[in-house]
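Researcher: We plan to redesign the surface later, but first we want a full-length starting point. Tokens attached.
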């Protein structure tokens, strides 16, 4: 084939494949078989390989692949990504007035919003609230620039490579697209695809995802787009960020325009005017949504006129022109066949209901949490009962009540202690219940289930992210006693791991797969990620150690105020927070006004004197902590628990082990006294910047570069702007800057400014 013929064929194939992508993803139909699709794709890839000059950026072949990233670049959103105010559907017992019924909060919102609008005739739109992960995609001059996650609303991860694996997202738009076109939507995994993915994962001995949203979030966080391309994610667009060069009047018009551009939107869409229509629409959606192939958890109601959005404005969190009406979690009845007991990483025994499988909220549920014995008693749960299960997209399914009419005869209430004979089902040691706690607990440090749960937590994505440490691997490592403490992982050799025979996986059919050898490739991956983990920041390590009451946020806050484990060991901050919490509790539990004026045994002083002393001490502590501006995430419970851990045998030996392994995690978010961060004498102090165009690094990078050097970065140009940092294809901002005589600066000049000063 000569290049001319090749070119013609490539163009033809690209067109055909794009058409089939649209059919498949936008319209949910298929004109050719998967096999035929693959052969068209293979033919295209084959010719492109022969003639690389024919590869265009928007060729369907270019969507999959790309090189794994080390980390995501940061993108600063030109318009903040807000969330929406939730209005919850009322529970039955909350409905007092049956006339207005469950929707009255929503109707109130509608009326209140109408009142603040110029006309009481304004239209509203109603659409499904998709239970997915928010994404923002920027097109400039019809070319896709980036795709980003919501992040903290201001800055998100650059997930362009991952988003390009979704075949309905075009890399270029027709020429009539707005010059700046930031479209926002929801990435999700269809329910069916989610179940299939989990089935495959369980066959491969990997951890299952909890729900489709979780699977989507996990997928988008992958640094390797080749992994993402194997995960069936899709997108639906519902809103916008920055738009330039297009006169957008209504939500309805925007949706229409997206459809003309062949961008996927939700098919379900209503326009309403009266409260009665609004009520009817949300009810209709509630019944329709169960047939959708993806999860929804509510209705989003928006003011149709965009001009009105501007006049209504937003609070610091939500726009006032939209709300999300959240449906109550879905419920279903099924039979409780038995109860199994799970031992968690802190030794707590959790009863889990084993159910006749039931389809709720788009997925099959066969297990649900029973929380603890108190909850079982309160709900009077017997094995054999017909129980009501509740599940929303986000939460673990739970048993909420029993249908007593269907209770079989001669059953008795489930009793956890009796069920396990007072012994831990994993290690057989005696279980106990500490005063004031509802949970039964296994206290053995050698309990295999506890170690397994600790190990899984340790290697979790948000902790040390140990690739290849799935359930079956963790199980094998613990049962073969290769790992008694998560830190033992660091002593494992790749050869040792490769030889491991994993237990057969349980298939959905009930059968078991063949036993599998772990193998060299996976073993090397795991040992590789174990080595990488050594350099992870302090916050991740703190979280990974699984210290009770020290979650992700508390760990981050702790790392913001301490540089190393040594600093934490000698920390007065932790001591003070913990002391304050104890004193506050004492004051709370010993009200002075109480008639009893017993003397305090230890000090001999009376309650009111003691209370006064404690209150003064609390003031003193607050003063010492003032400058640190410690968030409530790092509270007294977390600090007490951390101190207890550090002084315990387990804590001491873990820190010792880290020393031996030469692991000394360092905080990467250390900024103990926030006010000091804003020093006056930085090179860019007092200057305000706007960033535009394509730069050598992400906008987020330059934003933090400018900010750490004392400058301030804003989204749009105004009289207050001092400099416009412009990269390639700067767009309309340059014109505005020139008009306002604002200095336009290149990357090199910025670096000059910083180093010169
Ligand atoms: S409109 C100002 N429409 O829900 C927010 N959002 O809880 C404008 N979401 O961040 C967004 N379905 O990611 C809109 N039909 C829909 C949606 C939707 C899901 C997400 C969105 C938003 C979150 C807010």
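Model: Full-length starting sequence:
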């Amino acid at each position: 084939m000569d290049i001319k013929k090749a070119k013609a064929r490539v163009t033809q194939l690209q067109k055909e494949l794009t058409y089939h992508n649209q059919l498949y993803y936008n319209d949910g139909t298929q004109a050719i078989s998967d096999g035929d699709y693959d052969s068209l794709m293979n033919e295209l890839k084959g010719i492109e390989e022969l003639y690389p000059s024919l590869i265009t950026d928007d060729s369907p072949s270019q969507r999959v692949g790309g090189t794994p990233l080390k980390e995501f670049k940061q993108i600063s959103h030109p318009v903040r990504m807000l969330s929406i105010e939730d209005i919850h559907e009322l529970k039955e017992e909350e409905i007092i007035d049956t006339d207005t019924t469950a929707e009255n909060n929503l109707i109130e919102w509608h009326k209140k919003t109408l009142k603040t609008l110029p006309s009481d005739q304004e239209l509203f739109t109603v659409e499904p609230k998709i239970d997915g992960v928010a994404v923002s995609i920027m097109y400039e001059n019809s070319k896709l620039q980036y795709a980003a996650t919501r992040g903290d609303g201001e800055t998100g991860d650059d997930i362009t490579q991952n988003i390009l694996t979704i075949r309905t997202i075009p890399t270029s738009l027709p020429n009539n697209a707005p010059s700046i076109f930031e479209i926002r939507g929801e990435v999700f995994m269809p329910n069916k695809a989610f179940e299939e993915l989990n089935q495959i994962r369980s066959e491969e001995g990997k951890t299952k995802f909890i729900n489709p949203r979780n699977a989507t979030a996990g997928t988008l966080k992958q640094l390797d787009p080749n992994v993402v391309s194997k995960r069936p994610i899709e997108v639906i667009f519902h809103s916008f960020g920055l738009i330039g060069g297009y006169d957008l009047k209504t939500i309805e018009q925007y949706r229409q325009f997206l459809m003309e551009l062949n961008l996927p939107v939700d098919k379900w869409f209503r326009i309403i005017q009266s409260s009665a229509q609004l009520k009817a629409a949300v009810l209709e959606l509630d019944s329709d949504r169960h047939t959708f192939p993806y999860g929804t958890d509510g209705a989003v109601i928006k003011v149709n006129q965009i001009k009105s959005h501007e006049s209504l404005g937003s609070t610091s969190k939500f726009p006032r022109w939209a709300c999300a009406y959240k449906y109550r979690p879905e419920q279903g009845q099924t039979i409780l066949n038995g109860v199994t007991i799970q031992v968690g990483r802190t030794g707590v025994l959790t009863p889990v209901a084993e159910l006749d499988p039931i389809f709720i909220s788009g997925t099959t549920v066969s297990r649900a949490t029973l929380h603890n014995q108190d909850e079982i008693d309160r709900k009077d749960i017997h094995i054999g009962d017909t129980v009501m299960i509740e599940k929303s997209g986000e939460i673990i399914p739970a048993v909420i009540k029993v249908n007593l009419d269907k209770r079989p005869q001669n059953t008795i209430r489930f009793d956890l202690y009796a069920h396990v004979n007072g012994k831990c089902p994993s290690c057989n040691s005696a279980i106990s219940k500490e005063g004031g706690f509802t949970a039964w607990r296994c206290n053995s440090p050698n309990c295999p289930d506890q170690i397994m749960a600790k190990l899984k937590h340790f290697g979790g994505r948000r902790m040390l992210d140990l690739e290849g440490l799935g359930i079956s691997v963790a199980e094998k490592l613990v049962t073969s006693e290769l790992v008694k403490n998560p830190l033992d992982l660091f002593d494992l050799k790749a050869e040792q791991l490769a030889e491991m025979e994993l237990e057969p996986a349980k298939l959905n059919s009930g059968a078991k797969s063949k036993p599998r050898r772990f193998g060299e490739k996976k073993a090397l991956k795991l040992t590789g990620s174990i080595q990488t983990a050594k350099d992870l920041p302090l916050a991740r390590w703190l979280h990974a150690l699984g210290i009770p009451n020290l979650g992700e946020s508390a760990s981050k806050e702790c790392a913001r105020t301490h540089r190393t484990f040594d600093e934490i060991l000698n920390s007065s901050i932790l001591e003070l927070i913990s002391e304050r919490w104890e004193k506050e509790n004492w004051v709370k539990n010993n009200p002075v006004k109480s008639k009893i004026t017993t003397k305090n045994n230890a000090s001999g002083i009376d309650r009111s004197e003691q209370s006064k002393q404690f209150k003064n001490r609390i003031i003193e502590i607050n003063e010492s902590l003032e400058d640190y501006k410690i968030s409530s995430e790092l509270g007294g419970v977390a600090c007490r628990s951390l101190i207890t851990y550090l002084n315990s045998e387990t804590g001491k030996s873990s820190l010792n082990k880290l020393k031996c392994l030469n692991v000394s995690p360092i905080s990467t978010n250390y900024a103990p006294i926030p006010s000091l961060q804003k020093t006056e004498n930085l090179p860019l102090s007092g200057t305000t910047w706007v960033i535009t165009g394509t730069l050598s690094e992400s906008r987020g990078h330059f934003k933090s570069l400018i900010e750490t050097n004392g400058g301030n970065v804003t989204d749009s140009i105004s009289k207050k702007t001092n400099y416009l940092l412009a990269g390639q294809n700067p767009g309309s901002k340059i014109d505005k800057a020139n008009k306002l005589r604002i200095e336009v600066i290149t990357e090199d000049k910025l670096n000059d400014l910083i180093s010169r000063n």
